[in-house]
Amino acid sequence: MSEKINNIIDQLKSLTLLEAAELVKQIEEVFDVDASSVSNANMVMMPNNGDSTVQDEVEEKTEFDVILEEVPSTQKIPILKAVRSITALGLKEAKDLVDNVPKLVKEGISKDDADKIKKDLEEAGAKVSIK
C-alpha cells in the first residue's frame, strides 16, 4: 500500500466509536450513498441523480399458484368435482387434496388461468387464495 493509504488506515484505527459514526455520516452525505443498505462487501453503491434511464428492478409476477384454503363440509362434493375437472386427478387423489387443506391445486400458471380456477372453486363453495 502507498504511504497515503497507510496514514489514513492509522488515523481510522485511532478514531473513537462516536468519531467513526460521524465519519460514516459525512461520507454518506458527501458521496450520496447509504452505508446501511450495503449487504455485500464487493458491491459498489452509485448515487441516483434522478436519471430516468435507471430501470425499476421490480419484476411483474407472471406465474401464480392456486391454493385451496378451506372446504366447508357441506360443499365437499361440488368442490371435489371442481378439483377433479381442474387437475385431472383421480377420485382418491382429489379426495385426499380436498380433505387435507390448505393444499396447492395448481402451480406456475398464468394470472388469467389462476383467476378462472379460483372463480370455479369459489362457485363450488371453497375458499381459495392465489399466490
TrEMBL record:
GN (gene name): rpl12
Taxonomic source organism: Compsothamnion thuioides
Taxonomic lineage of the native organism: Eukaryota, Rhodophyta, Florideophyceae, Rhodymeniophycidae, Ceramiales
Xref: NCBIfam families: L12
Keywords: Plastid, Ribonucleoprotein, Ribosomal protein
Protein name: 50S ribosomal protein L12, chloroplastic
Gene3D superfamilies in alphabetical order: 3.30.1390.10, Single helix bin
GO molecular function: mRNA binding; structural constituent of ribosome
Family, similarity comment: Belongs to the bacterial ribosomal protein bL12 family.
Every Large ribosomal subunit protein bL12 C-terminal domain range: 64-131
